[in-house]
Amino acid sequence: MTSNSSTTFSGKNTFHNSGIPAEKITKEQIHQLASEAIAARDAIMKFWLDRCEDKQYGGFLTNFDASGNNTGTSEKYLNTQCRFIWTFSSLLRRGGDKEYERLARLGIDFIIENFWDEHYDGFYWKTNRDGSELDKGKIVYGESFAIYALSEYYLATRDPRGLEYAAKTFDALQKYCADTRYGGYREYFNQDWSPETPGFGGGDRKTLDSHMHLMESFTVLYEASQQEIHRRKLKEIIDLIIDRMIDHTRGSGLNQFNLAWESVPALSLKRTWNAERFGEQPAEPTQTTSYGHNTELVWLLSRALEIGGFEKEPYKDIMKQLMDHAIQNGIDWQYGGVYRDGLRETGKPIVFEKEFWQNAEILVGMLDAYKTFGNEEYLQAFVNVWKFCQKYMVVENLGEWRTLCDRKGNILDGNIGNPWKVSYHTGRSAMEVADRLHEIEGLHTK
Questions:
Q1: Is 0.85 surpassed by the pTM of this model?
Q2: What confidence tens digit (pLDDT) does each residue in 351-387 have?
Q3: In the prediction, which pLDDT does 20 show?
Q4: Domain tally for the chain?
Q5: Which domain holds residue 140?
Q6: How far apart are CA 64 and CA 426, in angstroms?
Q7: H/E stretch holding 405
Q8: Closest Cα to residue 362, out of 347, 346, 348, 380?
Q9: DSSP state string for 180-206
Q10: Residue 78 lies inside a defined structural domain of this protein
Q11: Scanning 20, 100, 212, 387, which has the fewest C-beta atoms within 10 Å of its C-beta?
């Protein structure tokens, strides 16, 4: 699907000489974009509804090629099984039909039966397709998605298992992972919660990635439980991220830290997307920032503050800094889309590829920033990325996105599904974008 709006990526008259086109987005264009977002959401969901159910073993299939053909799911990762559960539960909460409930329950049954550790608590990282054991490591990133999915599932269905296992996972994190010396959470563990090896194993590292997803999961957990301990830990991690994990001078998120919260060059750690992905890698560990993560952080922070009932005003300056940093450095105003990674010191891009998840998340972030601050630049940035994605990332006649393109949109990795990429970033983005565009359209018609 391609956008029918006439807004272009460049123009002679620009905001602050940044390359942002000066033509304002009209209410008619917003209406058109909202219609496109709904169509995009429905197409993404149809792709997965037609393919993802593992009718032989339960749970979900994840691996699909550029034509949407099943390439064989030999392993099942905790995070992607949970991302399907979250997606179907969220659609159910939005008024979806009973098929979403059936699929969400299918996923819950599979992870509780095959991933949950009855002896040590917590969820294993990976199983074989049939649910048999494969990798019994405990990774906070994966545990966070379990909490996120289970809590959303409970809110959608009121099945008590959702809240029960979400709370038990939260309790395990507080018992085994909370760093009582330096704050935050250690992230990489063996089955018995003993720390993983340092370096590639991640035992001596903390990341913005995992802590941001803990904030995301604690938000929905508190929404589901209404327990003060969950709200208090949510606020604690919000302030930890802002105080420790953001460069307030440059307005960018940091990437990796040692246990004492000193920023360190980023390694491709074991059991991470960076270690398993296809695409360009820096020649050596580098102090990087992710424009996609920074904008995802902003809109997830906004949601966390809202659900937690916290004042937003004290956080607005850093939220705006992060968004402006992405506009000034991460948006490709020549070809469209957002670059993959930038250098922390200068903010300038270091990897010019266009990957699915950064582009999906920046769409939501820019609309959220437009709602909060009212600056036209954010809406222009949204249109820039939206048009690029609809033209180059979306697979024609299938609706879902391919994984990776080069700067100009040429395909580098055409696969639609893999052990890390399923319905979460693209499907959630389409849901959130449609919601926000309808709100913005309402504001423009008042």
A1: yes
A2: 999 999 999 999 999 999 999 999 999 999 999 999 9
A3: 60
A4: 1
A5: 73-374
A6: 15
A7: strand 404-405
A8: 380
A9: TTTSSB--EE-TTSPBPPSGGG-TT-E
A10: yes
A11: 387
